[in-house]
Amino acid sequence: MFRRMFLSMTAGAAIAASVMTPATAAGQDIVDTAVGAGTFGTLVAAVQAAGLVPTLKGHGPFTVFAPTDEAFAALPEGTVESLLLPENKDQLVAILTYHVVPAKVMAGDIAGKKAKVLTVQGDRLDVNARNGVKVDGAKVVAADIEASNGVIHVIDKVLLP
């Protein structure tokens, strides 16, 4: 059921970039900004299933590397459904918190640099902003979507710790 629902969402990262401008997103927290974009249904469902909504609505600041619905749909068949099961909550939390940095990192802060950035999950992400921006091999397709408690960078793949 989840896979069919998420596969039916076809809006891409370009829509996310046009819907979530700094002017419209800045008054909303990260969760509300993601919900309002309409391209992060799978991510929002996963955040809810993991019990992370209160955290991502908290003070922050946070940087969230947000995979689109298309990125989740590219995972092997059954992966999303499996992760959303209550018995897999710990694994889901680990994956989601691997997408979150406990600081506000704007694109300009890392432009032209390479870095290893500590995540909320505890591991480090490889960020390469020397030729475009890639995070652990995922391409940042829209950057600097500001929220009241941080920033969202849209990525084209789900990051796995």
UniProtKB/TrEMBL annotation:
Residues 1-25 form the signal peptide. Keywords: Signal. InterPro entries: Adhesion/Biosynth-related, FAS1_dom_sf, FAS1_domain. Pfam families: Fasciclin. GO terms for cellular component: extracellular space. Coiled coil: none annotated. The keyword RNA-binding does not apply. Residues 27-159 form the FAS1 domain. SMART domains: FAS1. This is Immunogenic protein MPT70.
